């Protein structure tokens, strides 16, 4: 799944995809945003607008 168009994605679906990608393919959020060349803060803000917060110790949005 290409996350380059994350800004137009449904936030619940986006959260699910990001968490799955971090769990299965990346060490953490920083590695994911670097790989997809996306703005980390914009991704966090998009998910925060739907009530999700990134928990670095859990390496996922909740």
Automatic annotation (TrEMBL):
Domain of life: Bacteria
Cited Pfam families: DUF4250 (PF14056)
InterPro entries (UniProt xref): DUF4250 (IPR025346)
Protein name (record): DUF4250 domain-containing protein
């Amino acid at each position: 799944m290409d996350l380059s168009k994350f800004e137009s994605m449904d936030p619940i679906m986006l959260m699910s995809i990001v968490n799955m990608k971090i769990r299965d393919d990346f060490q953490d959020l920083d590695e994911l945003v670097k790989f997809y060349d996306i703005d980390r803060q914009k991704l966090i803000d998009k998910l925060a607008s739907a009530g999700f917060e990134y928990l670095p110790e859990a390496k996922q949005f909740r």
